[in-house]
Amino acid sequence: MPAALAADRIRHSRRAFALTLAAGIVGLLALAAGASADPLTPESGGSPNADSIDTLYKVVLAVAVVVFFGVEGVLLYSLVKFRARKNAVPAQIRGNTRLEVGWTLGASVILVVLAVVTFVMLADIRNPPNSDAAGFPSDRVENVQDASAYQPRTPNGRALNIKVNGQRYIWRYTYPDKDTNALNNAFSYEELVVPTKTTVTLDIQAQDVAHSWWIPQLGGKFDAIPGHTNFTWFKIPEPGVFRGQCAELCGRNHADMVATVRAVEPAQFKSWLARKRREVDTADKLAQTRRKELQAEQAQGAEAP
Fold it and tell me: What is the value of pTM for the model shown?
């Protein structure tokens, strides 16, 4: 076998192996849990605003698909119907005024319809509903000291407001006080526990670099920016666990900055929050006691000759 032919076969074998490997990797990624959940549209099912986002996306996608196949169909028809024959000279025409006006008006109508549908559905995406009667008795959002015009508000003004703080490389969640909406020292890391059937509003901040809060099944993506507060909301009807991750490259351990929301029954949430407050109070008392011991030791050391 000539050397050139052998080398050519080796190159073809390597190329086939590389293509097979790439196809296998793409197949594994496509079959991953996150990719197969909603491969063409946003994830939904966890909160009404996520469902509205998914519905709006599907409406726009359906219109785009119709337009795409319509344009491509006319293009293919024109290529076949008016293809050049042998030694053929195409007709020299300047244009078709009615056709040009028609497709301009058609495109304008499509854009206007999509704009109207978008603005109609934005209300359900931005404005949260009231909590159910059986939900956790939430506090009035208006009582928050740094309330903003952009903060989501329910019709009755009541929601469970939680502070979300992004810091490299973990999320911290601070819960409201049991009597007022002023924040105390009840907090958790990584996992946000919330009651079902309750409207939860989030104040999203960052203390170091830019992060991005995103739980796909609970709504859109919101940046966490130092010195600025973003707002979002969700309302989970049934118990469950929803996972996400920081969606803004924030450093070398960005991939470790995961986010989890666990929805439990309101009674279970009350018990969990009370236990969390006791744990934090106990830790604070121990820290204060140890601080006093260290101060006493330092004072004794200063008095020693």
Answer: 0.74
